[in-house]
Amino acid sequence: MHWLTGTLAHVVLGLAAVLVYVVMTRAYAERRPPSAAIAWVMGLALLPYLALPLYFLFGRRKETRRQALPAPERAPVDAPWAAQLACAFGIAPPRAGRARFDADGAQARASVLALIESAHQRLDVATFILGGRNDAVAQGFVQAMAAAAARGVRVRLLLDGLASRGVDISALSARGIQVKWFRPPLGRSDGTPRNLRNHRKLMVADGVRLWSGGRNLAREYFEDAPGAPAWLDLSFCVDGEVAADAGRLFERDWQDRGAAALKGPASPSADRLGQAGVQLLPSGPDMPEDCAHAVLVDACFRAERTIVAVSPYFVPDDALSQALHLAAVRGVQVEILVPAVSNHRLADIARARAMRDLAAAGVRFHLLPRMAHAKAFVVDHMLGACGSTNLDPRSLFLNHELSLLFYGKDDIAWLSGWLRRRIDEAQPYRPDSPGFGRDLVEGMVRAVAFQL
Fold first, then answer.
1. Bridging pattern class, strands 333-339 and 306-310
2. Under CATH, which architecture does the 291-451 domain have?
3. Which residues pair with 238 in a beta bridge?
């Protein structure tokens, strides 16, 4: 009789947990990839004692208390489709400007130091990872920021509270750098799930110069070490109004940590289409739509000849996987670069099933011989993108991310050339048939891939 009572209580709790999931998902208008939704429902139904607390801690993926960035005005009617889509999400319209891409880690390091040196009034920095005291590259950046603060520049540094948790912020503060944690794992909660990380990388000087891309402020992104070559990555500098857009984005993130607001530059109006070359593309819990994911999927359906992309991790959700599949079967040349072995073993396991399925549809995968951390894509030599967004569910649906869309021919040609050179260095991917055990492990890892 006791076992029947216990079983009934377990069933009731499981049903209640699933009901909580349904109600909260509907209340917060949170659309989830089917794989994530199935994983949560199964966990809540079968293991409610464990899954329900985890859902309250990590289940939400949108910040309903924050609003989308207000667009000064919509994109011109003859603007590229990506510009019109981004503006429909409340994102600032395209701006005049051209990127100066960093050819390698050494040039990227010089670009960062030059931008810090150029700041006269304000320097705003956001990074996911800041290297520790034994990281000479990271400490060089810290020293440059401290020197800027000493000459009267207001230096603000926003660090992700999980990825940079080992950083001694008291030491940074003592050197005149204002530091804030973005959603630390411990400490007072702001009511938002702690798994929504700030993965954005940006540095804005005086609201007019921007450095951004995929690089964190740590050694492996900039220079070799004995037995450990620097990771392949991409970063760039852009001047002008798009830097002001990035500054306003930083200001929102800074204020969201409870800081007092600074008066920033006024929102400029949209540039004329003939001048517009770059557009900020923020994505994450602070946006009502999944902006980066929407642009990617739409690009797959609009592509006519080529799609070339690079990402350290490749775990597409069902919608993106289907869009890539359909692009390939209708004759678009789809090429995706990933490291042969990334720095996250689980991500490599999770990608295997999607790579096999898409390769069967005609997608060409290229395996890079060293760790690649770059995130970029080019479509038909008409649209390019580069930034912090990986091709995985955490990056596309959970993290705060930042990319730039490029519409200018020179910027797109530079990105396309960089991708083609990496393809020449890579080995072609050859799928194999997994055994039952491996297929089972891949499916289990894939089920929780949205939290990896």
1. parallel
2. 2-Layer Sandwich (3.30)
3. 210
